[in-house]
Amino acid sequence: MEKRELLYSGKAKSVYTTDDPDFMVLEFRNDTSAFDGKKVEKLDRKGLVNNKFNAFIMSKLADAGIPTHFEQLLSDTESLVKRLDMIPLECVVRNVAAGSLCRRLGVEEGLALDPATFELFLKNDDLGDPMVNEYHARSFGWAEDVHIARMKELTFAVNKVLKELFEAGGLTLVDYKLEFGLFRGEVILGDEFSPDGCRLWDSETGEKLDKDRFRQGLGGVVEGYEEVARRIGMSL
Ligand code: TMP
Ligand code: ASP
Question: How many Å separate Cα 18 from the centre of its chain?
Fold first, then answer.
């Protein structure tokens, strides 16, 4: 597979075309951003750690029957993926209250949510990724009902697999964000799964080991990600 030209550069990843129109190369950069791009820093090794973390998780999800765009690792910071037609929505599942849910609803961080809750956000930095509902998605043509139903089903299926995986490493999967796209009409998991897009707490101490370390200026961001990787049996 030959890497061709830069197609798109996001806040943390760049996307390249290949000689096959069905595939793209994702490059995980060291750039780290939060608050819709208002806080940006380069963190050593982050691209490598997230690339390998994502490959590990996507493979576990594929083993569990969840369709993903991930094909293979190409280098320390690059992966080959299927080229999806992205749906501009972010699917969030929350097992424990944190982040924007606490600010919006005035609940305390750490409140267990049983059953887990589901939210949709519009992918739009200029608007601050506003929360939207399924009727908005339909009226504005962001996604069809059948696709939303499938995204929801897959997002909860991911929860079952990953809650257990992290629990075995002494970690609580607090919440996470997934993005989906269409490949030959089928809804497929795209983007990435890494500590940039989820919250993971030490189950005993509650220590934060995800991007909240960056958002809250706690330091040791990549070290936190590496600690998670070690605990789930990944080699870096
Ligand atoms: P929130 O508490 O800020 O709404 O985020 C919930 C989870 O989803 C958290 O793990 C961060 C992740 N997330 C992103 O990674 N990017 C986003 O644009 C949004 C809205 C959430
Ligand atoms: N909303 C996500 C975060 O806070 C991504 C972003 O802000 O750009 O990490």
Answer: 23
Is there a domain that residue 136 lies in? Answer: yes
Ligand 2 atom with the smallest distance to the CA of 211 is 9
Phi, psi of 105 (to 5 degrees): -110, 0
Residue 171 and residue 77 share a domain: no
Q: What is the pLDDT of residues 13-47, one digit of tens each?
A: 999 999 999 999 999 999 999 998 999 999 999 99
The answer to whether the pTM exceeds 0.85 is yes
Ligand 2 atom at shortest distance from the alpha carbon of 99: 4
Tell me the C-alpha distance between 203 and 207, whole Å: 8
Residue numbers of the domain that contains 151: 85-220
- The string of pLDDT tens digits covering residues 88-97 is 999 999 999 9
Q: Residue 228 C-alpha to ligand 2 middle, in angstroms?
A: 20
Mutate which of 29, 36, 214 for ligand 2 pocket (most atoms within 8 A of beta carbon): 36
Does ligand 2 have an atom closer than 6 angstroms to the CB of 128? no
C-beta of residue 180 within 8 angstroms of C-beta of residue 190: yes
Helix (H) or strand (E) holding 50: helix 46-63
